[in-house]
């Protein structure tokens, strides 16, 4: 895995808020509200958005509001702060405006820059455009006596050019002619990407763009950056937001844009291991979480039934009925079930493998077992999974994420310990070290 270049190894949440609201007595009220977020409602990365979220006529005032609010409240904000500036690959005038705002915001005499971790640059094009942005960062740093590379640069992938540029990063980063090592987040912007690609759907809704999300995750992994998905704008569709995050996590994209504090809570908790483990059953094409009742995993739906017979069992899935022996039934049910491990389960397995490795064993078998109840019929199932070093390292990802969160977000300690228990948290902070 390519080494990460920044303090945060994982970013779960990328939360934008407008920098200036027109027609309000306090145009910075949304910034003040966001700066006061704490715990699970506070994002890992807060993005005062002086681009799309703020009207063009209000952006100069928005830059001033960033300075005022961050200077006043930035020290207490628990996440990182990365304002989003205006930029466009085809507009020198827009790029210059963003550059001027960066200069104003980072003036050390104004008190905000010490709390600002970097800037987000939208609408980038090919790799030369990324290097233009990087050069502006370097100028800003030199103008104000900041260390070169001290301001992180995150970019929003909103064009085919930017998507292709991710393939050039490994060759370009580290050259003496740029400071692209400052790159932090690669963020998908599916709305403008759809426009750039001239894509259409019958309903007018955005395409899902799984290819873009995969390419961004791959590009981030190869370049030592962090991948973040774009905004999910149906803020009432909590289940859809969760499904999107689950799809992303299977691609290695563990972060997502959040538009509301409610979405921040969902995104902050989604990649964390569950508090309790659960068994899932494929009931005729529908995945169902089984109810745990006194040590038995129970299914009481009508898509699947199980009855004992003189010769064994009859398993009915939909309209298909099969006569099976006990061993055949167990094999069938093993194919229909899966287990989602809890934090405690993962830590247990890792500790067991670490002990085995310490004793000189390179691989061990770990057993998952359960008693299933389908209707009124119970049967025991069990399967062994081989753990070796590769399995251990793969299991380490959710633990590494948890450790990163716990180390960087002390404001979430109480909620994490309430979720898992202080003992599990302590053990989770020790495995893999």
TrEMBL record:
Please give the superkingdom of this protein's source. Answer: Archaea
Q: What GO molecular function annotations does the UniProt record carry, in alphabetical order?
A: catalytic activity; magnesium ion binding
SUPFAM superfamilies, per database record: Phosphoenolpyruvate/pyruvate domain
Instruction: Identify the keywords attached in UniProt to this record, alphabetized.
Output: Magnesium, Metal-binding
Q: What is its cofactor?
A: Mg(2+)
Chain ranges of the Malate synthase H C-terminal domain: 279-393
Q: Which Pfam families match?
A: MSH_C
Gene Ontology terms: biological process: oxaloacetate metabolic process
Q: Which NCBIfam families match?
A: malate_syn_AceB_Halo
Please give the name of this protein.
Malate synthase
């Amino acid at each position: 895995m390519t080494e990460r270049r920044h303090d945060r190894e994982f970013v779960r949440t990328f939360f934008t808020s407008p920098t200036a609201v027109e027609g309000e007595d306090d145009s910075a009220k949304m910034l003040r509200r966001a700066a006061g977020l704490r715990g699970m409602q506070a994002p890992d990365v807060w993005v005062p958005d002086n681009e799309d979220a703020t009207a063009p006529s209000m952006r100069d005032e928005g830059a001033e509001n960033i300075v005022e609010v961050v200077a006043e409240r930035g020290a207490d904000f628990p996440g990182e702060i990365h304002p989003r500036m205006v930029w466009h690959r085809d507009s020198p005038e827009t790029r210059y405006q963003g550059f001027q705002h960066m200069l104003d915001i980072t003036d050390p005499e104004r008190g905000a820059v010490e709390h600002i971790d970097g800037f987000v640059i939208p609408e980038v094009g090919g790799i030369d455009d990324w290097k233009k942005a990087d050069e502006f960062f370097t100028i800003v740093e030199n103008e104000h006596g900041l260390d070169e590379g001290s301001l992180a640069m995150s970019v929003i992938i909103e064009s085919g050019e930017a998507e292709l540029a991710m393939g050039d990063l490994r060759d370009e980063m580290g050259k003496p002619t740029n400071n692209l090592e400052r790159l932090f987040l690669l963020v998908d912007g599916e709305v403008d990407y759809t426009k750039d690609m001239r894509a259409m759907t019958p309903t007018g809704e955005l395409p899902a763009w799984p290819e873009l999300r995969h390419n961004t995750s791959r590009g981030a992994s190869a370049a030592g950056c962090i991948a973040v998905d774009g905004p999910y704008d149906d803020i009432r569709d909590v289940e859809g937001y969760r499904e999107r995050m689950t799809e992303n996590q299977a691609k290695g994209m563990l972060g997502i844009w959040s538009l509301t504090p409610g979405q921040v809570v969902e995104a902050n908790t989604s990649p964390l291991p569950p508090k309790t483990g659960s068994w899932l059953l494929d009931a005729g094409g529908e995945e169902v979480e089984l109810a745990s009742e006194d040590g038995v995993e129970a299914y009481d739906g009508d898509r699947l039934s199980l009855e004992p017979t003189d010769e064994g069992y009859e398993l009915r899935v939909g309209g298909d009925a099969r006569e099976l022996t006990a061993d055949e039934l167990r094999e069938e049910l093993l194919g229909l079930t899966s287990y989602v491990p809890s934090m405690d389960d993962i830590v247990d397995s890792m500790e067991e493998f670490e002990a085995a490795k310490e004793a000189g064993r390179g691989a061990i078998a770990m057993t998952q077992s359960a008693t299933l109840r389908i209707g009124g019929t119970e049967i025991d199932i069990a399967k062994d999974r081989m753990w070796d070093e590769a399995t251990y390292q793969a299991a380490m990802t959710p633990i590494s994420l948890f450790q990163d969160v716990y180390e960087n977000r002390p404001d979430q300690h109480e909620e994490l310990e309430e979720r898992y228990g202080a003992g599990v948290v302590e053990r989770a902070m020790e495995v893999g070290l």
